[in-house]
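To assess whether the prediction recovers the assembly geometry, we first specified each molecular entity separately, as shown.
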Amino acid sequence: MTNLAIGRLRRFSATPGQMAVVLLIAAFLLAFLLVPAATVIYVAFTEKGTSNLTLVNFLDFFRNDLFVRSFWNSVYVSSLSVVWATLFALPLAVITTRFQFRGAMLIQTLGFLPLIMPPFVGAVAMQLLFGRNGSVNLLLDQHLGFKLPFMDGLNGVVFVQSLHYFPFILINVSNSLRQIDSAMEEAAQNLGSSGFRLFRRIIFPLAMPGYLAGASLVFVKVFDDLATPLLLNVKDMLAPQAYLRVTSIGLADPMGYVISTILIAVSIFAMWASVAVMRGREYSTVQRGGGGLARRKMKRGEAILAYGAVTLVLLLVLSPHIGLLLLSFATIWSFSPLPDGYTMANYGRVIGESSIYIKNTLIYASLAGLIDVVLGGAIAYLVLRTKIIGRAWLDWAAMSALAIPGVVLGIGYLRTYYGVTLPDGTPLATLSIMLVLALSVRRLPYALRACYAAMQQISVSLEEAAENLGANKRRTVRRIVLPLMMGGILAGFVTSFSTAAVELSATLMLIQSNSEAPIAYGLYMFMQSPAGRGPGAALGVIAVILVAVCTFASHYVIERSQKAMGARK
Amino acid sequence: MTVKFKEPKMAQTRDGAAVAGARKIEITNVNVHYGELHVLKDINLEIQPGEFFAFLGPSGCGKTTLLRLIAGFNNASSGDVRVGGQDILAMPPWKRDVGMVFQSYALWPHLSVARNVAFGLEERKLPRDEVARRVKAALELVGMGHLADRRPSQLSGGQQQRVAVARTIAIEPKVLLLDEPLSNLDAKMRVQVRRELRDLQQRLNLTTIFVTHDQEEANAICDRIAVFGDGRIQQVGRPMDLYERPASLFVANFLGTANILDGELVTVDGKRLFKVTDTISVPVPDGVTISPGTRLVFRPQHASLEDAGGQGVRLPGRVSNIEFLGASVRYGVMVGTSEVLIDVPFQSGASVRTVGADVNVLLPSDCMLWLAE
Ligand SMILES: Nc1ncnc2c1ncn2[C@@H]1O[C@H](COP(=O)(O)OP(=O)(O)OP(=O)(O)O)[C@@H](O)[C@H]1O
Ligand SMILES: [Mg+2]
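The predicted structure of the complete assembly is given in tokenized form:
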């Protein structure tokens, strides 16, 4: 072998420990993400009961009126939700980034809303506020003599989803706007452009990548959501159909798998499209250092308009929460703008009966978060700090979880692991650890991003200095990398934890008994019966508080640890 | 900031940053590639025990790459590196005992100054009281004993630099590698700290490599310098030798100011002449070979100006520019189509020439260098 070849080889070599880690992670991702997803797709393409490849299932799908209608309904609801979410988000984004505006902080905090409450919880409260016989329509009818169909059929889904998910667009667009160099705006003004033309021709194109990222996220989330339509009694959408097929007809029926495959395809398509639209256009002129767009003082008329718009959106956004809070204290609330009376009984009942849900949630979500930061940290290290073969593959595989809807992963687990049984005959798929694994796989991309960001902030020379002073790779990771990454790891944990705590779609598929169910499942059960709505709302409020407290506590810890470390360079 | 290194007490030499038996560094036929990019080409170098050695060269020429190769953070595609006779290329960085001070200092922000310095000793599993003693000794050696409990972010640039040095010498490395350790300091600090570094190196008798692209810095404190250019070592030597006898145009240009005259070899009446212009030519001394691309090189302070007469080679020219530098006057003189710079010592009362004056540039023949690329 030539010297050159030896040099090359040396560069690719990895320690045995690193290789073991790669193999372990690969095994995990294979077993709990790729194989279940591939199984679903495989079943969709095989003839029922045989292993012959066929397209017949897809033909059946498109010959069935219900499915075709469901498909177009899902497309319609997702697209319209994006449109409405855009209408809610854009004014807020522009007002808070381009003008001097008092409530900017408040609006930014809204970004956490989709994280701390699943949309289906709000759906019930929205029904009471905006439904055919809800508070708003009762008042309208009484005073103006007409009603508005906010919540009828698909409208209701669009309304709930767009209100719930618009912060994804708000945050992405605000970030893009904030990063635009003020010189760009000044250059345009210098060339004679101003006002709305300036916004349309310069500012918005530069914020486009952020907008598309947010919009595609909203589209995918709405398309995959199962519980909101079900709770609003809308069954002819794609994700509910997948669930209903599998739970009512059984695991052997190919239609559930065909629908799942279509869900995956649409997710991938939406993400691809948001990237592809931008390809070939050069918008990376976005620079830092310019200090972002100059914030202008608002004129009187503008200010009235701005505060009016913000107040309206805030009222809408907070309505599910307000409704939920009212409902949780209500004795009876129907056919009246406000509850008939108030009581603590709902909380009493929930705390007595449902502490098991809370306990389960805490266990599942923390385990999932833990798995995520361990895997995310390890993958981030392997990708950013080693040249080991297969590292890019791990990264890609972990991120691909973004494209697998919860309901699909649940179906995949059932199909893959139902036949596998423990010695006592219990199918593997019914163990609650499966739910933990599903949750961790679904949230892995977020934790991975957080770990990447944390590790990218650590200068490699800090690690080299440790090695230079005698610490091997393992010791360097333990003594230098981990302590420095702690903030990012914690942030990743919290994101995983708080989103896993309120996830429902995989949960609905995998949970078999009440005693093993987490809060989201309990909420869903409560909310299905009118009598359960009071206690359900109380449980919802508890869930929101639980997640919010955890989120803010960890932010506090992260900030303190960073302060202790001093200004990082 | 004016803390000087204290004189070593016996205790320090015994169990502090103690005097190490200095090691020799031998680098043979080293080549380094980054992918397709050939960054270091056939490097051969021998650095003597206890020597303060500089890698000097323009940005991007491979100095850091070679330093990192010695420390174990790069791989050579061929060649050998020996420290104290031992081949180190196959060892992982943490086994090499090659102390490196990083350009960014790389102090760990989550550890105090004392814990930073203790790190390497803890990794060597030394007993706790010995760690404490050696941390104290190392910090005192660099005059930082009183700041042991601070966080790195609470230190000035110069203080951070000293902590980085203390952290490295605490483990008593076999050799010390310094990658532009002064580049983050302001000009005044640089002069002070470089002298302290030299002091310390002498006291510890540590073979040291110092990377810089500042020639003044290298000249001031280093025993010998390797001038890097384009991934190769262009010349190795003592600072004064490099200045007086550069081996190539590259080195002459890189170290100090050099006048370079282009011309061609002609033979007139059996005598070899270097023709600069049609009317100006310089006799070529016997024994000098002139090939295409050879230029005539001389330093501004080696030539002088005169009206007429005198010994040596004369180049007629016209004063085109005058700069007063304090101790001397720098004249720009047009010789043919090129401007040469001549430094004339300034004496009060002496007459100063004016722009446009016709002069002769007088070149003593022992100061003429005939160099190619
Ligand atoms: N990790 C890397 N991958 C690819 N090329 C690299 C890498 N590091 C350095 N290089 C290239 O190798 C060459 C030598 O780099 P090196 O850092 O050794 O230069 P240097 O002499 O230390 O320069 P400076 O004085 O600017 O620090 C440069 O052309 C650089 O672009
Ligand atoms: Mg360098």
